[in-house]
Amino acid sequence: MPSPVPAACKAFLKDLKEEFDLDKITELASSCSPDDACEAIGMCRQDLKPDGENLWPKCHLYPATTNCEAKKAWFLTHHGSSITAKDVKKLCRKSRKHKLFCKIYENTLGNLFFSKRRDFKQNKFDREFIEREISKQKIEKKKKKIKPGKLGVEAQYPASDADKDGFGTSATVRGWHWNGYDCNDKRNDENAVNVYPGRSPELNGWDGVYDSNCNGISGNNDTTGIPFEQELCEDTPGRGVLILGDSASAHFHIPMNYVTPETWDEDTFRDLLTIVGNEGDFPMTSWGTGIDNVSPKWTPNFQQIDSYPNTNSIYNRMRDHNRCNHNDYQNNGVNGGATDSMTWPERGIMYGMVRNKTIDLPMVVFLALIGNDVCTGHEDSLNRMTTPEDFYDRTLVTLNYLDEKLPKGSAVFISGLADGRLLYAQMHNKIHPLGQFKQNVRFKDFYDFMDCLEVSPCRGWLQTNATLRDLHSERARELSQSAKAVVRDYPIWDNFKTGYYDFDLAKMGEMWLSRGGKSMQDIIDPFDGFHPSQVGMSMQAEYMWEELLEGKDDIIGARNPNNEKIDALFGNFQFHGDGKG
């Protein structure tokens, strides 16, 4: 079924042009600034602070203007009655198409800095663990009270999950863009609850009758009478990939052409519903669990460079290494994720993962929280940073939980934090997409604008004050040392061993340049100047594969010599979900 977004976009823009004198707004924006035009029509205003007496500061993205008060007054006198924020909102309610366009456009851009809290749904897989954690609220191996952090984000679950096994059949809303596709999600099928990605096929007669682990391999060899899964996978059993992380793991990205109307065409908003359903993220092209490349499907959303490298995610590399690993991936990256929201009782991100240590296959896990423990948009950002002690303790809580869930033979890698000073160093003088037309807004202006509004994703690193940038990087270094200490103190658990890795942005950038890339800026998102870009996703996957997994048969298992035979018998499906390739 075709997407309703292009039709909604056309309807809204047609009426916007017909009902509003856009030329007059453009004229004011050109003679003064877009900030002045926004203020004149009432879309931008100064609100009262919580004290009810003082106003928030007036924030400017574009260069400050002089002698514009008279022009704004003239505009309001002659056009203000017909061009107001109230009228735009009225237009958004004109029809279902208008409402759809306004809602998804607002939600998409609104996700740039804020993560909506969803109503929490109790995860039935973790009820017993939750009850134990609430009752004791301490780390078993340290006998120490946990200091809870502020709840910011929560565990997420697939919307289309009829059999309630933790996997779904839709692509978005935590479906197979995020986690493996459930090949039997029938509510009334008694076998459905025992069919999901990652299940051990040995418990189902090696899937001689039906595909219990959804890796596309089932049936019996007519010649030998042996199930294909046993013949092709028993000597190289599968392993899944699990990501527990933040927006850099989920791959947060706002297409920069969304904010440059002069570039809009029929394809611009083609994937807007998908992006909204994925919370502003692109997990399907992420470093950890990406199943797609940018071209051809997602090209309209990525305009930073002319030709993108293949995603080659950790999951795809694991799948190429052993075709039996097909479809076994989980991305529990959540925008705003940090150690507090990872471990929060009942609602933490970690509760969204699905594994049974007795009936499922092992996993390679990445605990990847690279910045939000030092990042905040508030003025008192130094006081809000996670302490090294809390980082250590919360990481242990996560590992305790994983030890209760993961099958033996798993591995857990813990990431250090990024040194965010590289972001400002690379981006501050670059022209921002919002300033492309007149070349008058640089990223440093965009950073200051977000800081003024107190919506910066990371005030400590995205700002002109070098001292603050250094202080936040020093805390990030301390938290990375805490992660190293956890691995040093607890290297071996009952069901997995741990490892540490540096999140080395500079090295990823150097890798890109060595492959013919034009600039280190290419690894940073071209709109928000904060998250890793699509190029950064590809480079991170390559960096982590080479540093942590390549040649490590004790972690990823031996390469499956039957890969070509599996492809010949069952097809080399690169796509997931509909299984059509």
Short description:
The chain has helices at residues 5-19, 22-31, 34-40, 69-79, 85-92, 96-110, 127-136, 228-233, 247-250, 272-277, 314-321, 339-343, 381-384, 388-405, 421-427, 443-453, 466-489, 505-514, 534-549, 553-556, 563-570; strands at residues 138-139, 144-145, 240-245, 329-333, 363-368, 410-415, 496-501. The chain has 581 residues and is mostly helical.
Q: What are the secondary-structure elements, in order, as H or E?
A: HHHHHHHEEHEHHHEHEHHEHHHEHHHH
Kindly state the number of beta strands: 7
Q: What's the main sheet like? A: 5 strands, parallel
Instruction: Assess the beta-strand content as a share of residues.
Output: 5-15%
Mean pLDDT: 86
Work out the radius of gyration: 25 Å
Low-confidence stretches: 112-152
Q: What structural class is derived from the secondary structure elements?
A: mainly alpha
Total count of helical runs of at least 4 residues:
21
Principal-axis shape equals: globular
Helical residues, percent: 25-40%
Could you give the order of strands across the largest sheet? 4-3-5-6-7
Q: Report how far apart the termini are.
A: 19 Å
